[in-house]
Specification:
It is a single chain. By secondary structure, this protein is an alpha+beta fold. The chain has a single domain, classed as Nuclear Transport Factor 2, Chain: A (Roll). It has 4 helices and 4 strands. Strands 1-2-3-4 form a 4-stranded antiparallel β-sheet, covered by helices on one side. Strand 2 and strand 3 form a beta hairpin. The chain is globular and about 35 Å long. About 30% of the residues are buried.
Length: about 140
Amino acid sequence: MKLVACLAGLAVVCLALSPAAAGMVGQDDKEVQGVADPILETVLTGFNNGNYALYAKYFDDTLKDAITEKKFMQVRADILKKIGTYQSRTYLGFLQQGNTSVALWKGRFSVADGDVLIKLVLSKRGDKVQVVGLWFQ
């Protein structure tokens, strides 16, 4: 299967977090999945519908600055040609990297021949969980 690094400019990871300002979102798969699944569902619904406000709802400010609405619409059109719209996913697990939790899913998209790896990088700041990175590969 050809890996597609999707969302070119949209697949920006903004991990410039100070250790004191950020934290992981869970200690085990159940905790991380419980937090990450509804966030990813919102992101993917926004992606499928071309709704930037929904897509970027949980993005931190740095990611919102990097992925403007104009950039989202431009790259989204290219992504739809390469892998299509989101259809389903299976949670694989998570990684702890620094002060972030990286949640991983095996995704199915309408045009892709095989599975697409979905990586959602989350950080907890105070009582708020934010997306600091996103990839479709």
